[in-house]
Write a structure and sequence with these properties.
about 475 residues, six-stranded antiparallel beta sheet, binds manganese (II) ion, Aminopeptidase, about 30% helix, alpha/beta, Aminopeptidase i, Domain 2, 22 strands
């Protein structure tokens, strides 16, 4: 009988916090603190771009339009309409031999204002909303909500709004029915408990002090907005205003081992990849970081990953490194490798029945890879090739980065997708690779600090390969 045969043959699935040295634990907590700062400053895709641009410029990145030619070591970024961004560090290898891409998204489920949002009813003023992405509507009532976004006037003047984050700001909320009178509501299916049309934000109750007019509360609110921002009701027609939870990111648990925050899907992968890129020097393959928009609603539109903006960016890299020739872009994609860095559903013991415990991502067990996503019989999945999975495993194993390969839930229970298939369809080798999350898409999502730091290390190792 061979001793330690189990040790040799079994794939160990261990909690990463075990046997962790003190230095690494300190690094994990310090990194997570920076991450939480980022979350508090970047609650929307536009705000994430502002933060990412700041980080990039502090680390020597410049707008690609400043470069006539590009050389190895040059650090560039391209911002697309203030809502998505690509960054690159030019490698010593030719771009035509492929680039190393890490792509996340910086939009998160939320409530958007309708084009004609403001109305008055029963002595209150409200904003009407239209939800964005996959939400459980009941989770968005009776929580503090902040208002973020832009209003653009016909003359091009842009007003940027952020109310409800500062301690001295007011917050807003969506009311729900008291249990005493909710008999009928409580009989409804959970998904019908709150109607989309009832997600109306309470924004004021003082009537404007004038005798004759109707809608005096609405008038008073518009007067306040006019004095503060110089806008009228019609200016909402050309605005993008997003309602998000006003909660701050906080350490979670007596041991502070987790992060609770809004918007971790997918800003946890956006931040960790961005932070990893800031630490790179002298890469061999050109390192490319994607922060995309509109993933939560299908990646459509000119700021979503389905648009040709990314092709344009890679073409610009080819043009400015002097490599370009007809159809070279296709070759670049065929030889490129990508981590589609998006969050994974973490195993939740309270809802264990939706998961296959042998194929789940566990909080605290390191970065999670999904070979495929999709629904039912892998429908719509981008299924990573075994050869490529092996290549990625090799990087993680030789750098001692803890990882797990899992599926999103039990067979036929549900499913999901990321931007992986979009790049895979261009010819890139892609695997989904991100941080496991509890309560995904809820106003307050939970991650493990261990996994956050594992993601940072994994992304850095991938680019340094
Ligand atoms: Mn996501
Ligand atoms: Mn999502």
């Amino acid at each position: 009988m061979e001793e330690n045969l189990k040790e040799k043959l079994f794939n160990k699935k261990e909690n990463g916090w075990k046997k962790l040295d003190i230095q690494e634990k300190d690094d994990i907590f310090a990194f997570s603190k920076e991450y939480m700062n980022f979350l508090n400053n970047a609650k929307t895709e536009r705000e994430a771009i502002v933060e990412a641009k700041k980080m990039a410029e502090e680390n020597g990145f410049k707008d690609i339009s400043n470069f006539q030619t590009l050389n190895p070591g040059d650090k560039v970024y391209f911002i697309n309409r203030e809502k998505s961004m690509y960054l690159a560090i030019i490698g010593t290898e030719k771009i035509e031999n492929g680039v190393h891409i890490i792509g996340s998204h910086i939009d998160s489920p939320r409530l958007d204002l309708k084009p004609n949002p403001i109305y008055e009813d029963g002595g209150f003023a409200y904003f009407k909303t239209h939800y964005y992405g996959g939400i459980k509507k009941y989770q968005w009532t009776t929580i503090p909500i902040s208002i973020h976004g832009v209003i653009v006037k016909p003359n091009g003047e842009k007003v940027t709004i952020s109310i409800g984050e500062d301690e001295n700001d007011p917050i807003f909320t969506i009311t729900d029915l008291l249990p005493h009178l909710a008999q009928e509501q409580m009989e409804k299916k959970l998904k019908n408990g709150i109607d989309g049309e009832d997600l109306n934000l309470l924004i004021g109750s003082i009537p404007y002090d004038v005798e004759k007019e109707s809608d005096k509360v609405k008038l008073n609110i518009l007067n306040i907005l006019n004095q503060k921002y110089g806008i009228t009701e019609a200016d909402f027609l050309s605005s993008e205003i997003e309602l998000v939870p006003a909660f701050k990111a906080r350490s979670l648990g007596f041991d502070s081992s987790m992060v609770a925050s809004y918007g971790q899907d997918d800003r946890v992968c956006a931040y960790t990849s961005l932070a990893a890129m800031m630490k790179l020097e002298n890469v061999k393959s050109t390192a490319v970081c994607i922060l995309s928009d509109k993933e939560e609603i299908g990646s459509m539109g000119n700021t979503g990953m389905e648009s040709h903006m990314f092709d344009y960016f890679i073409s610009e890299l080819l043009n400015k490194t002097g490599e370009n020739r007809p159809n070279l872009l296709d070759k670049v994609f065929c030889y490129s490798k990508m981590l589609s860095s998006d969050v994974d559903a973490g195993f939740d013991p309270i809802y264990a029945s939706v998961s296959d415990k042998y194929n789940s991502g566990y909080l605290g067990h390191g970065i999670g890879l999904n070979k495929y996503t999709g629904a039912r019989g892998k429908s719509g999945a981008s299924d990573a090739n075994a050869e490529y999975v092996a290549w990625v495993r090799n990087i993680l194993e030789k750098n001692n980065i803890r990882y797990q390969i899992s599926e999103l839930g039990k067979v036929d229970v549900g499913g999901g997708g990321t931007i992986a298939y979009i790049l895979a369809n261009k010819g890139v080798d892609v695997i989904d690779c991100g941080v496991p999350v509890l309560s995904m898409h809820a106003p307050y999502e939970v991650t493990s600090k261990y996994d956050i730091y594992s993601a940072f290390k994994a992304y850095k190792a991938f680019w340094n390969e």
